[in-house]
Design goal:
Radius of gyration of chain C: 24 Å
CATH topology of the largest domain in chain A: Rossmann fold
Largest sheet of chain A: 5 strands, parallel
Number of strands of chain A: 5
Largest interface: A-B, 60 and 55 residues
Chains: A alpha/beta (263), B mainly alpha (326), C alpha/beta (304)
Strand content of chain A: 5-15%
Number of helices of chain A: 10
Shape of chain A: elongated
Oligomer: heterotrimer
Order of helices and strands of chain C: EEEHEEHEHHHEHEHEEHEHEEHEH
Strand order of the largest sheet of chain A: 2-1-3-4-5
Strand order of the largest sheet of chain C: 6-7-8-3-9-10
Distance between the termini of chain C: 42 Å
Shape of chain C: elongated
Radius of gyration of chain A: 26 Å
């Protein structure tokens, strides 16, 4: 062990140590210094960069978009993507922004977010599932059905839906919006309450709203589950299972036209 | 004194401990670099784009989905909400929280290494400094020289401080150099947000500001160094008190690991914040993640650590100068 | 008047309530090799560790060349060199770096002195090799070399021949005698090899249960223990007559008495007068080992 080597190591370490001590002091002073920003962080910066020009699908909505109940985790969105890929032999871009339990009010806020808007802007197709949580409220609606409250929440929902579609159109008026209707998971449970009628009515009102927007399409799913609903439901008797999602995907996928050539 | 420090440095370098530590750090950094690289690649494949905003948006969605689950401990929910708000803040201000490049990797590596990995490295050196003299029997030669005992211990402590500094610098340097091979050596000037003020699940953004990444890195470095010094001093004390190196290491290891576990569960046990091991994650205060126990601040943690440091030093010197050597 | 290099007065050590060392007093003079003997657990090692400052005495004083080990530790240590138990050096450093390490802890020890001690112990060839490649004998020599760095007046060696082969032991013995005679050092040696002490030391202290039982020169210690072994017939009558003169022990068919230059012939004459046949009269000078066993009570005297 040569003396100069030891000495050099000692001196270098000593300098590093002093430097670290200095950094430490500076950090504490800086942390409590309450300086204002040097870079102006408080105003929202608009995003200039655009997403790639590929065929893009944005999926918005609730647990159905998320794919809850499908043990493979794909959900109808994932299955639709697979269908598209096998048909066109190319992979479309997908932004799945579905959040479990999302209600229409929350989706109104979500589509106003900067990054979400940017993704919507780049979208060719927008898939939306919303309203299920507004209507069923995790089954609460059916346990003590209150016609008054139901009609209030339905009105609110329809207003929100208007706003969502308007915002989507505002950001991107070329994308096709597919809004999926509700199915009735409680079809076999009902005894005195006519859930079918309630869901049908909800779907009709939704379709009326969708009709106001020329590039929006209402896709019914009610009929898919009408017979033998339990075969297509997940163990929670609310979300579709893998087969259920397959049914939905089979309905949605053929509606989507990948018109890549003309872009 | 200078001669004594030279002696200790000579022994330290001859034992090749630092080389071993360097190799450990190197291997780990390479592993993490590869893991990170794989993760980025996979995410790009999944999203079909390399745009970080889409990735971050997806993270936000994932977090929101986790939050929607009812079966979640309140404190985890709180932490998730905080990180959600920060992610949203980054996204809204078009700032990439993980700007690709070696500088970001180094920052993340240091932030993740501060509470367990770096202390472990320090332990390799610190827990051995005195007890190895004991187990080799060389302590008898050392203490029968015409030099006061406190001077001998002081020279060892100074050597500890020097090697701690060296190890911290080496870790930072190695992680920068090695990860740069994959991610490139850029990212020094990338903006990083600091100054989130946390009150429970609420994030107060009024103090938030941007700093360049290099400044943030230096802050991290200072905090990592303090943690390393404190943990080093505690191991050093154990090295004085416990004759065998493995026993000292074991005690320290148990403390560190219990700290890592406690961090996840102590939020309701308030007085746990006086444990040193709960206060090790200093970098969370400047990056703005929730501390394990509400009410802990950078200053309170630093003071807690300094108190432990001071006590450890007093105990070390008192024990070393007084104890009989058999 | 020779200078006193080590003086120990009323040295005591208590651990808890147990008194391990119960008050030792002894002195070492310049140029003297002093042996420290005792069975395991007698307190030898504890005493040596107190001498070199590793253990603090409960009471009593230790002065090395006039400096109190407790109050003027550094000054006292400057005049002392020691090896406590095995010469445990840093195996990962070279012999030279080990010397450098200890030289840096001493005032005014330069490279020429390091060369000197290397030469003194004959390690010139291997001094730059790592200590872990050394044989035990070489480590022992390196240990002595480091103890000699500061030209000590007092050298304390704990078990210096431990683990050495017979040639090594002889070499070490000559070396220690040379240090004492040529350089005027005092050497304190503890050893369990009693034969070694007998050959090596001028004076011996025998310690048992934390007390010094005897301190004397090797010669006088041995001579006081000189005995006569009688074989007489009839035994009974011989015992009767001899016990009239002195203390006796009977072992098998022998009578053992102390040896006394003047009186022994008279006892013999008395036996003859009483018609007791004296078949054998052996003068027996016990080895230090026997003496040691005797005084420490670890066993009776035996006929070899």
């Amino acid at each position: 062990m040569s003396k100069p080597k030891v000495l050099a190591a000692t001196i270098v370490s000593a300098f590093i140590g002093l430097f670290c001590l200095f950094c430490l002091g500076w950090t504490i002073i800086d942390h409590y210094g309450k300086k204002t920003s040097e870079m102006g962080a408080n105003e929202t910066t608009p995003i200039k960069k655009n997403l790639p020009d590929d065929f893009t699908v944005v999926a918005l909505g609730d647990s159905l978009t998320r794919g809850t109940g499908d043990e493979t985790g794909k959900g109808y969105v994932g299955l639709v993507m697979e269908d598209l890929e096998s048909e066109y032999h190319r992979k479309p871009l997908i932004h799945n922004l579905g959040i479990n339990g999302q209600v229409s009010q929350e989706l109104v806020q979500q589509v106003k977010q900067t990054e979400v808007k940017r993704q919507i802007q780049a979208a060719d197709v927008i898939l939306v599932t919303i309203g299920g949580n507004d209507l069923f409220q995790k089954g609460q609606t059916l346990i003590d059905y209150d016609r008054e409250a139901a009609s209030v929440s339905q009105k609110k929902y329809l207003k929100n839906l208007h706003e969502i579609l308007k915002d989507l159109n505002h950001v991107n008026d070329t994308a096709t919006i597919f809004l999926l209707g509700l199915y009735n998971p409680f079809i076999e449970l009902d005894e005195d309450l006519d859930t079918n009628r309630i869901v049908r009515d909800w779907n009709n009102e939704t379709a009326e709203v969708v009709a106001h927007y020329k590039n929006a399409i209402f896709v019914p799913t009610f009929d898919l589950f009408q017979l033998s609903v339990n075969e297509y439901l997940y163990s929670d008797k609310f979300h579709p299972n893998k087969e259920g999602y397959r049914l939905i995907a089979d309905r949605v996928a053929p509606l989507i036209k990948w018109e890549d050539e003309e872009r | 004194m200078n001669n004594l420090i030279q002696n200790e440095m000579m022994k330290l370098l001859a034992k090749k401990r630092l080389v071993i530590i360097g190799i450990i750090v190197g291997i780990l950094v390479m592993m993490f670099t590869y893991a990170q690289y794989k993760q980025v690649k996979e995410q790009q494949e999944k999203l079909g784009t390399s745009d970080w905003r889409a990735a971050l948006q997806q993270q936000i969605i994932d977090t929101q989905n986790r939050l929607s689950s009812n079966r979640m401990l309140d404190e985890w929910r709180e932490q998730l909400e905080v990180s959600l708000k920060q992610q949203q803040y980054y996204l809204d201000h078009d700032i990439n929280p993980s700007e690709p490049g070696a500088a970001t990797f180094t920052r993340m590596f240091l932030e993740n290494a501060i509470d367990l990995f770096i202390p472990l490295l320090i332990m390799i050196v610190a827990s051995d400094l005195v007890s190895s003299e004991n187990s080799q029997g060389t302590i008898k030669l050392l203490l029968t020289r015409p030099v006061e005992r406190w001077k001998i211990l002081m020279s060892k402590y100074v050597t500890l401080l020097l090697s701690v500094s060296l190890i911290v610098a080496m870790t930072a340097l190695l992680s920068y150099l090695l990860s740069g091979l994959v991610f490139g050596y850029q990212g020094w000037g990338a903006p990083v947000i600091t100054g989130f003020d946390l009150k429970g699940a609420n994030v107060d953004v009024s103090q938030v500001r941007l700093v360049a990444q290099w400044k943030f890195l230096l802050m991290d470095l200072g905090l990592v160094w303090l943690v390393a010094v404190v943990v080093g001093t505690l191991s050093f004390m154990l090295s004085v008190l416990v004759r065998s190196t493995p026993a000292g290491m074991g005690i320290m290891l148990a403390a560190l690991i219990s700290g890592a576990i406690l961090n996840n569960m102590v939020s309701s046990w308030e007085s746990a914040k006086y444990f040193f091991m709960v206060n090790l994650k200093l970098t969370t205060y400047i990056s703005g993640t929730a501390p394990p126990i509400e009410g802990m601040t950078l200053l309170s943690s630093v003071i807690t650590l300094l108190v432990w440091w001071g006590l450890a030093l007093i105990v070390s010197f008192a024990a070393f100068t007084k104890k009989d050597v058999y | 008047m020779k200078q006193v290099t080590l003086s120990v007065k009323g040295l005591k050590k208590k651990i808890g309530k147990r008194e391990i060392i119960k008050g030792l007093d002894f002195e070492l003079n310049e140029g003297e090799v002093f042996g420290f003997l005792g069975p395991n657990g007698a307190g030898k090692t504890t005493t040596i560790r107190m001498l070199v400052g590793l253990i603090k005495p409960s009471s009593g004083s230790i002065h090395i060349c006039g400096y109190d080990v407790r109050k003027e530790f550094t000054k006292a240590m400057q005049h002392m060199g020691c090896i406590v138990e095995n010469p445990e050096l840093y195996p990962f450093l070279s012999g030279w770096d080990n010397l450098l390490h200890f030289a840096r802890m001493l005032p005014k020890v330069d490279e020429s002195r390091m060369n000197e001690v290397t030469e003194l112990v004959g390690l010139e060839v291997r001094i730059h090799d790592k200590v872990k490649t050394y044989s035990l004998g070489m480590r022992q020599r390196l240990g002595i070399a480091q103890a000699m760095l500061n030209r000590p007046k007092l050298l304390i060696l704990d078990e210096p021949t431990n683990g050495l082969d017979p040639a090594g032991i002889r070499e070490m013995r000559q070396f220690i005698r040379k240090l004492a005679e040529d350089e005027g050092m005092s050497v304190l040696v503890s050893s369990h090899l009693l034969g070694e002490i007998q050959l090596l030391c001028d004076r011996v202290a025998i310690i048992k249960n934390g007390e010094i039982i005897k301190t004397d020169t090797v010669e006088s210690l041995l001579s006081t223990q000189e005995r006569i072994i009688w074989r007489v017939e009839p035994l009974k009558k011989g015992v009767e007559i001899l016990s009239g003169y002195t203390d006796i022990t009977v072992e098998q068919n022998f009578i053992i008495t102390a040896y006394d230059e003047v009186e022994t012939p008279e006892w013999n004459a008395a036996l003859n007068q009483a018609g007791v046949k004296v078949h054998e009269m052996n003068r027996n000078l016990p080895g230090l080992e026997e003496l040691f066993l005797q005084v420490t009570g670890s066993g009776g005297a035996r006929i070899e």
